[in-house]
Specification:
- The chain has 19 helices and twelve strands.
- Strands 3-2-4-1-5 form a five-stranded antiparallel sheet. Strands 8-7-9-6-10 form a five-stranded antiparallel sheet. The protein has a two-stranded antiparallel sheet with strand order 11-12.
- It is elongated.
- Helix 5 crosses helix 6, helix 5 crosses helix 17 and helix 6 packs antiparallel against helix 7.
- The chain folds into three domains: 374 residues, no CATH class; 65 residues, Regulator of K+ conductance, C-terminal domain (Alpha-Beta Plaits, 2-Layer Sandwich), CATH 3.30.70.1450; 73 residues, Alpha-Beta Plaits (2-Layer Sandwich), CATH 3.30.70.
- By secondary structure, the chain is an alpha+beta fold.
- A hairpin with a 2-residue loop joins strand 7 and strand 8.
- The relative contact order is 0.21.
């Protein structure tokens, strides 16, 4: 032990990475679907090591990692944040603001009632509302206070203690309210209500976790028989004659010759056609009336599968049905998946495409390349990170947060470098959605910034909190746990009735929206499981941006209110 203590003192980075490894192991453990998560796991990993060893932790290293994380979060939610301010999105804006505000009020009232110090109050807020970035913004606010350094370190350590104690019910509470208590309080049948939303959006229901063994989109070759329904019709007429599916004739073999048809080309009996479409449609619609052929030469068509990032007003705000009917350039291109933020959303004719969505499409290479500039930009996996924008934006965000103060009654609250960086990320993410050439950062890089940034930061917080953790839990553990239950449930229950009866949101989407407002993906996953439907993800995508931005900011506010 003495030798390991010497090593950790000389090479503290070893302890940080060990804490992250332990944390991810803890985070993967679940009991009936509920666990600590990798962030709180990393915090506990740091606490465990810090309880046995003194590990010197650099505040500058913590700050750099945390700022990377905050910029990544802002960059991800920026397009959705501004998109949801438009049109009918005001209802989701109200819910996305209402829940965090009530959460802040509940945390403040409970902290005052329990006579908690600013550190415990911030950790109560962080764990109960499952927003770990509060640890960073609250810690920054505490370091700016006019108290002794020892007092600052003690309060900052208390944040980690309270967060770890309150996080478990914070997660469990969101899951229970969104998937069980919420539907009962609203008096709805989750499965029936989800089916109504699926029907309205034209989504074909599939059981969660079950997928087809075949490729969802494919080319197949068919020979038109003498009495074939499409014999004598033009390409355009034949494609329109198939109801309920989008099928495209890309190539024709006629009398041994292969050519690419135009919309006015007339199909003849004996033609062998290469048809692109969803596999189930090809089998169910064409199989009974045509003869499938084996023709490798005819099917030798360059097929592209790319992500198209939506920035164009021609697509943003439109349903897939309207896009298909009014965009000739969309011919031959089929959508595999739509990703909004980090979540896949269900696809149907009534699904509305939003600015900042990524459409994962497949089709002939020429067709995909023709459509891409109309949608926004094509996402290539080899894109480089624009470090000029990244570095400059974080610099400006830190500067903005350091100099801006917000008057709140008799208080003057410094915005803080953490919140400034978060807002800088939001602005860069939004600008990228408007001007796709600006500030390019690959999705993989953003994921890494968010994952390693927050995990390493909280691991280092845990290393410092380790020496006092056990004592603090013995002294305040049950008090913080009970207070955390109140803070978790108050915004969820009030948000449930506010969203349903004041702003009149669809009940299933509302449950997803509550999980988004508290940034807890496990909540929406539980709704999906109980409803046997993915539609609740739509509600989550509408509010999660507001949850991340406001709850992270509350770390600064709660410290100011408590001091």
């Amino acid at each position: 032990m003495k030798s390991l203590a010497t090593v950790f003192t000389k090479y503290p980075e070893m302890a940080v990475y060990l804490a992250i490894g332990i944390g991810y192991f803890i985070g993967k453990l679940k009991f009936h679907g509920v666990g600590f998560g990798v962030v709180t796991g990393s915090l506990l990993g740091g606490v465990f090591i810090g309880n046995f060893f003194h590990v010197p932790v650099s505040d500058q290293a913590k700050a750099m990692l945390f700022l990377l994380f905050l910029f990544g979060i802002g960059y991800s939610v920026g397009p959705g944040f501004f998109q949801n301010l438009k049109g009918d999105g005001w209802r989701w804006v109200l819910l996305g603001v209402f829940v965090p505000v009530v959460g802040l009020f509940a945390a403040y009232v409970v902290a005052r009632f329990l006579k908690l110090d600013p550190g415990y109050a911030a950790g109560l807020l962080s764990g109960s509302l499952t927003e770990s970035p509060v640890i960073g913004t609250a810690g920054e606010a505490i370091r700016a206070l006019s108290v002794s350094d020892d007092q600052k370190q003690q309060w900052i350590s208390h944040i980690a203690v309270a967060d770890a104690i309150c996080y478990i019910f914070g997660t469990l509470g969101v899951i229970l309210v969104c998937s069980s208590f919420g539907p009962k309080l609203l008096g709805i049948d989750l499965r029936a209500e989800s089916k109504k939303v699926e029907d309205a959006l034209g989504i074909k229901h599939t059981k969660l976790g079950v997928s087809s063994a075949w490729q969802p989109i494919s080319f197949r070759a068919y020979t038109i028989p003498p009495n074939g329904q499409v014999a004598g019709k033009t390409i355009a007429e034949a494609e329109r004659s198939v109801s309920g599916a989008r099928l495209f004739v890309e190539r024709i073999r006629r009398s041994g010759e292969i050519f690419s048809p135009v919309s006015t080309t007339v199909l003849e009996a004996g033609d062998t056609v290469a048809v692109l479409g969803r596999t189930e449609a090809l089998i169910n619609l064409l199989g009974p009336s045509s003869i499938e052929a084996t023709d490798p030469e005819l099917l030798d068509i360059p097929v592209a599968s790319f992500g198209l990032y939506v920035t164009s007003d021609r697509f943003a705000g439109k349903t897939l049905r309207a896009i298909n009917e009014n965009t000739d350039e969309a011919r031959g291109v089929l959508i595999r998946r739509i990703t909004r933020g980090e979540q896949s959303i269900p696809i149907g004719p009534g699904t509305v495409v939003q600015r900042g969505d990524t459409l994962e499409v497949s089709g002939p290479q020429a067709a995909v390349e023709r459509l891409a500039p109309l949608v926004g930009r094509m996402i290539h996996p080899t894109e480089d990170t624009d470090f000029i924008v990244l570095g400059t934006a974080i610099f400006l965000g830190v500067l903005f947060g350091a100099v801006v103060t917000i008057p709140l009654g008799h208080l003057r609250i410094t915005l803080g470098t953490s919140v400034g960086t978060l807002l800088a990320g939001v602005m860069v993410g939004w600008l990228r959605s408007v001007k796709p050439w600006f500030g390019k950062i690959p999705d993989g890089a953003i994921h890494f910034m968010k994952d390693i940034g927050l995990a390493a930061f909280v691991a280092m917080v845990g290393l410092k909190a380790g020496p006092i953790f056990i004592t603090a839990v013995r002294q305040y553990g049950y008090i913080l746990f009970l207070g955390g239950i109140v803070v978790t449930l108050t915004p969820l229950i009030s948000g449930l009735f506010f969203g349903r009866y004041v702003v009149r949101l669809n009940p299933v989407l509302l449950l997803g929206g509550l999980a988004g407002a508290q940034t807890m993906i496990a909540g929406v996953a539980a709704v999906q499981e109980k409803s046997d439907s993915p539609v609740a993800t739509l509600g989550y995508s509408y509010t999660v941006a507001f949850g991340h931005i406001l709850l992270t900011t509350w770390g600064t506010i709660i410290v100011a209110l408590m001091t």
